[in-house]
């Protein structure tokens, strides 16, 4: 009889099923001759509307002092746009009334109208340490509202976005809370009702203290002051007709934990996958286990077995792995670190990664490829020297020095295809010290492996300040390797992981109601917008490059006081909102009204891009922000501002 698979074998099987899709840039959407943004001197039209009551904006308490608390609770957007009707914006006031502001282009918005008062608001909003109320639209007829004190409401909104400009249908109907669910005090991050299964999926986030007796995973060494971010994925099954909103039953709850707050969290269109952008891996937590045993996704293979004889072996295997954005990477033992790592691919050839000590420059590196043998020396001392496993074209060899989150790497690439489909068992025949890495996320993996022994960080002399990603929340100024992660909720494992390396996160935006939010990442100086789509089942193309905001990555890095970032649903502009007063709008290129020429080259400029700097007449903090095609909405505790940014506003 065959023996049952061990925990390590099960972890390896899970990891092997994970794919590593790339971010493939559509070069037709890039512009190497972008002329920059021209400052528009005219101020756009601004309309100020005073609110009848202040916005509910609870302050952090003395126990909510960590960076995770600040990121999760302190910079949340208090303004909610309706993806099905962008003429409507919503907020919750200090008495927990859900207020709607309906705006029409080129006109003053109507006064805020209350639609719903959360139950027991007078008592529950006085609770200490509560989160702010939050909401999310699940479809065109319903929304979810979390009171921040442990209750989640499903609200019947009626048909939205179909009433026309006169609002004759929508203004006479109040919203109704038709179902109530008990949860922990949390923020509602995302919610969606999938009509094919008649299920409601809700994602809630909270920051709580780490349990003192909880088993620590390999990534817990950088937890933020003993706090962890917790994501709860609730699934509710409707017991009625698809058009009804009541009589829901909870059928599943998945809980994930991490030592960081994600920048991005949502479901895919079919609510089968959880999408995350995070600096450190999330782990599933078994709520039925009183000891909160955890399974990393994909697993690092450090789970305990019932056999005492295997405990030491499992611990040794656990120590020989380290997480890269949720992916386990094998490392050499601490007593004998690998001098280099390498990977191979039938299509892309061979890649070699060598960690560099601090102070080593390109002039100190010697690389020699004869086609038969490969030699790499630093300060004249060989790091890698020996005959290649197979003969390679000596002219098809490139190398460069690249900074990564753990250390600087010498990246050497043997370009082309292997002469045979059989993988190489080693890089050079006389040296087996090098560790072979998977064929995906290799640069990030090599940096983590090297950083485990060298500890080198970025060489600040080679970078500008605006090129450095934001420091992690642990307060040590360390740089993290982020990743875009797809997690299968049924299998409880990562099915796709894209390591971002040094790519900087910019923002996420909801473009269409039926799709998850798009993500914008920096590439060189540009901001590239990516559309997530897993419907085709092809993991290699789940991130699609849809548009480019030229030079936006550079201008975003220069705005040190930026609080909110977003773009128009039609991609006509991207905007940055400061903590106080200022909004910066960067319009995409449009045909020039007059003939323009470059002063130096004389080249005719057919398109121009403009920048608008908007100064609001308020000293209050900006706590809400939303972008439509023709206007921007900015919320303070006492007022809301409408900024006209459509064609002709500049």
UniProtKB/TrEMBL annotation:
The keyword Isomerase does not apply. Keywords: Cytoplasm, Nucleus. Pfam families: CS (PF04969). Residues 293-303, 322-343 have a biased composition (Polar residues). Residues 307-318 have a biased composition (Basic and acidic residues). Residues 335-428 form the CS domain. GO terms for cellular component: cytoplasm; nucleus. It is found in: Cytoplasm; Nucleus. Its main location: cytoplasm. Residues 287-343 are annotated as: Disordered. This is NudC domain-containing protein 1. The lineage of its organism: Eukaryota, Metazoa, Spiralia, Lophotrochozoa, Platyhelminthes.
